[in-house]
Specification:
Radius of gyration: 24 Å
Strand order of the largest sheet: 1-2
Distance between the termini: 47 Å
Structural class: mainly alpha
Order of helices and strands: HEEHHHHH
Number of helices: 6
Number of domains: 1
Number of strands: 2
Largest sheet: 2 strands, antiparallel
Shape: rod-shaped
Oligomer: single chain
Helix content: 55-70%
Length: 125
């Protein structure tokens, strides 16, 4: 390739042997919030089942922002659901002090229910 062809394509290129490869880089992400467990689950889900969405977010520089938004939304929903389900099923501090093992068992069930709902409605949508 000649220099005029490089100018015609625009951008910068690196010549490797007979090939001119474009110098590509991803845009810098401005969002430096930590990605929690829900965001990590969303990331694995996108990589495995929705590669186009994953690569679109990655190349546009919006992946971390998307993952932290999903994480915050999911954490908020999870906390609210655990509180509501515990109230609905009568899991109180009195039960905790009277029968700690029953309280732990019931809270584990409530957390599992809330996790399933959050996964379905936020993470794996």
């Amino acid at each position: 390739m000649t220099d005029t062809l490089f100018e015609q394509f625009g951008g910068t290129y690196t010549q490797i042997g007979d090939y001119a490869l474009p110098d590509l880089s991803l845009p810098a992400e401005k969002d430096d919030r930590p990605i929690g467990i829900w965001g990590q689950r969303r990331l694995r889900y996108l990589k495995q089942y929705h590669k186009v969405i994953y690569y679109n977010l990655l190349t546009s520089g919006k992946l971390n922002s998307h993952l932290t938004d999903v994480d915050e939304e999911a954490q908020s929903l999870f906390s609210r659901l655990v509180k509501e389900l515990a109230e609905k099923e009568g899991v109180t501090e009195q039960l905790k002090s009277a029968d700690p093992m029953a309280w732990v068992g019931r809270m584990n069930n409530i957390r599992n229910q809330a996790t399933e709902i959050v996964n379905e409605e936020v993470v794996f949508e």
